Amino acid sequence: MTDDTAAAPDEVVRDTPLAERVEAILLIIDEPIGLIALAAAVGAPVPAVRQTVETLVDDYDGNGHGPRRGFELREVGGGWRLYVRDDHDDLVAEFVGGQAPARLSQAALETLAVIAYKQPVTRSQVASIRAVNVDSVVRTLLARGLITELFADSETGAINYGTTDALLQHLGINSLDDLPPISPLLDDGADGFDEPTIR
């Protein structure tokens, strides 16, 4: 007679190779983890976890059957954690620096929102809406590639601005139609007025 009941979660964990469970925990921790805490996390005896950690160290260092990895399992402050190897520090720093552009200021975010929702729009129109000079902010947004010059007004010569595909990528949307409707976010002003008094 077969048992059709599903295995309990702790049984599934015990059926998974210990090295896989240890690696899974090591991949998600932010701080070094001690052997006792690691053993508790993976549901295994401390001696078995210690041996597994030692095996992983050798494996990552290329002392086993495979090549050396770009990362290592290092003991720091009484705990274990995965680290990039020292000889790849410059490579990783350059990559991370290129992937993490400086954050936009509040003024830049507000100006970008006006352009996104009102485009095509001129610099003076944006300044009128925000009630501040936006020249430097517009230059910043242009330099970041988040907005672009669309066309010049035939009568005034004023440049009209719009957003770029780079902004869509940063927002994770396919088109400007995916922007949330702005009217529900705006105060209609009704709360600021008293009901009229009939005399």
From TrEMBL:
Signal peptide: none annotated. One of its GO terms (biological process) is chromosome separation. InterPro entries: ScpB_csome_segregation, WH-like_DNA-bd_sf, WH_DNA-bd_sf. Coiled coil: none annotated. It holds the Pfam family SMC_ScpB. It comes from the Bacteria. Keywords: Cell cycle, Cell division, Chromosome partition, Cytoplasm. PANTHER family: SEGREGATION AND CONDENSATION PROTEIN B. This is Segregation and condensation protein B. It comes from Microbacterium oxydans.
